[in-house]
Amino acid sequence: MLKVEGVSKSYRGNGWLGGERRQVLRRIHMEWNKGESLGIIGESGSGKSTLGRLLLGIEKPDEGRVTWGGRPITDRRARRGTISAVFQDYTSSIHPFYTVRQALLEPLKLVGGPGDARKLAELLRQVGLDESYLDKFPHELSGGEAQRVCIARAVSSNPQCMLLDEAISSLDGSVQMQVLELLKGLKETYGMGYIFITHDIMAAAYLCDRIMIVRNGEIEETVETSQLRHVKTDYAKALLRKVIV
Amino acid sequence: MSLLEVEHLRIWDGGSGAVLVPDSSFRLSQGECLAIVGESGSGKSLTCKALMRLNRPGIRQTGRVALNGVDLTGLSDKEMRPYRGKRMCMIMQNGMRAFDPSRPVGAYLLEALSLHGDWSPSEMVAGLSAAMMSVGLSDPSAVMKRYPHELSGGMLQRTMIALAIVLEPDVIIADEPTTALDAVTQYEVVEQFVALRGRIGSAIVFVSHDLGVVRRIADEVLVMKDGVIVEQGGTDAIFGGASHPYTRYLVSSKEALRSRYLQLMGGTRIAEG
User: Fold this and answer.
1) Cross-chain residue pair A228–B210, CB shorter than 8 Å
2) Which ipTM score applies to this complex?
3) Where in chain A does DSSP place strands (E)?
4) Which residues does the UniProt record annotate as the domain ABC transporter (chain A) (predicted)?
């Protein structure tokens, strides 16, 4: 479905120290299949978030291509209704002057779906909230509630894939668990597929069917979650050993 | 006598009058590590800052905070000075904001040391270098020349720990020191804290919402909810058989994650010991 072929990406160094280009991703090949939950894990600076932005088509690779069903993902029409995103910082993900209603209506208008009260109530119900939230502003929501609204918004365009970039990392432990259960429920009920980018290996192992380990801009190893204990590379073994359970 | 005694600590907002921490009491013995756990807004950070009287001016506090029998709450700012930094050292969540962004890290470290001791400059550099090497910063002089924004979060936290090693404070207050770090760096910094306990006899107040980390490092655990200490006990007792429902809820909340991971990894208890 979503295919990455030979993708590289570099950025110019920034600030007065800059100048040298930094290679963030090197000739990445990967695939995401319909209905699949794929975890992308790695340390800070490994390039996993850059890979996420390329998968979303909001950035272009220097070389190689990212395609959805054979069409380039950077083409907005090809992308529509296919993949949506939830990011780490839920406070800045919703326009501060928008109510939950407005925030939910925005993507619905884009895909031309129905934006009536029933649809909105249904969306909120899917993420464990109710209609009483419709007229609230982002600052009136807790972190977990705001992230649920972001997920409701991501679901609203009926995407086949939801890309989550450290989406649970800034939530409290118990709230993290609630959001993970919510994602699991959406997967079981609606067949939602995920690309789950995180440094939280335990969370990835909980939600995902397959795990891809990224290191210094390259894919170190990809493994079925059920085979996690049989990873081959020394780096992957060390990474899994460093999980604080 | 305990090293640090907190009795009837009450913290409230001077403006609105809202009580944030109604009545907290706890003790810390020499060399002990006390973890304060709880969710966002439970008053963990407020409590920590109150120990050093570092809450912003609008936040008021009463009660007794005694270090080696000296009540800190009655001291003037000037008398408080040696307690902040030298006797009690704070390691914050965000290393980037803990350092002065306009100067190289080394300049900041040397200034901190010169304020708190009478070392000669060469002694300070030597002491710092040795401490930085011991926390895994292999090239101390290069790190000291860098500005905070040029270093990673993990490196800044290690640098802070190195500073604490040199200062040898009585108490180290670490407020979510590993929360902003990725899993691997988090593991390494936690290991540094464990090693730190063996190296200098400092007592540690370790604030975290990550119970995995707490289980690894703490002797005693204090559970806070909405400003109130709901339970307090030994780490094994808290994780093994907490009596308060909220503690049980916290401990159980990520149990599904943990047991799934342990099951996937073949039941081996990784990173524990």
Assistant:
1) no
2) 0.85
3) 2-12, 21-32, 37-41, 63-68, 71-72, 83-86, 161-165, 193-198, 210-215, 218-224
4) 2-241
